[in-house]
Fold:
Amino acid sequence: MSGRRTYLDYNATAPLRPAARDAVVCALDLLGNPSSVHNEGRAVRRLVEDAREQVAALAGVKPSEVVFTSGATEANNAVVRGGWDAIVVAGIEHDAVLAPARAGGARLVEVGADSAGRADVHAIADAVLCDPEVRGRVLVSLQMANNETGVIQPVAEVGAFCRAHGICLHTDAVQAGGRIQIDLEALGADFLSLSSHKIGGPMGVGAVIVRDGVNLPAALLGGGQERRRRSGTENVAGIAGFGAAAEAALADLDSATRISSLRDRLEDGVRAMTPQAVVIGEAADRLGNTSLIALPGHAAETLVIKFDLAGLAVSAGSACSSGKVGASHVLDVMGLAPDVARGAIRISLGWASSEADIDTFLTAWRMVADADRRAVA
Ligand code: PLP
Structure:
């Protein structure tokens, strides 16, 4: 690939942070299995335990509550497939929650969302209190922030309700990690999922947080690693990189206003050039890094290709598995008009985003807007 590229797709994956890269490289140079009792093993174990502390700090939990996994998909699956009798989820959840919930034998209730992208809290309460089939071991799963719209979900409200009724709550905090403060206790959650690559760590590593004293069947059986919760020799280099990224992301929480000012400038510029553009979810509390903008009359896939040719990486809808393009179930649940939903592109910023990135995006947007004007002239 030649020429300067502008990367604005952090919700799909974030660029590797320098500290995470260094940690991965250092870990790769160490010899030893973290389960071995000899000197080499203990040195590697120390890396894993340091990373556990770093990830725990990001999630506002104790290190003993962190279980390393191969990513958030595994973390979500481990919780959702935890032998529940009934599961209540928001229809706007990521597929890594929806697919295992739909595949399992539990009674499943999927609740809707309003047009701003907020999950229907009353429907969650109704399902838990009034649905006669929602009984026994019940799990509620509500993400902290949506990967497409960036809309922050009312997890603490649902958490207070779940605690009051003795129900377990899981929150997929993949998009919230490093963008807003996470505090498991304040959220009232029992389980929380994180992914390394969304916060500037390496891919293929994540964590499920299991609150002390809460029972969750082991995700994998074998050698009994991760306190018997997830067997398998640890991905030490990945975990070390995840830990370093978590520490950097936590320190970077202070720069959230820098990122949200960039995002606001981008949206102001778009509105000035194309007043017909729709900023999806703007009526709700959103992550400061995410902008989902629809240009009615355009297909998102075509816009993504135009931007790509102009040197910019953005995505259409929820395309976080490569090449995945299709109708967004999130926008569908929100009840967006098909013409608006079809033209929605997601721009997401992060730790390395700059004013120059916004300038480049707005220049490319102007090209699209000018072409539209010429077409109707
Ligand atoms: N949950 C959400 C909200 C996501 O955005 C993603 C990203 O793809 C995942 C889960 C899956 O994470 P991972 O890529 O670590 O499996």
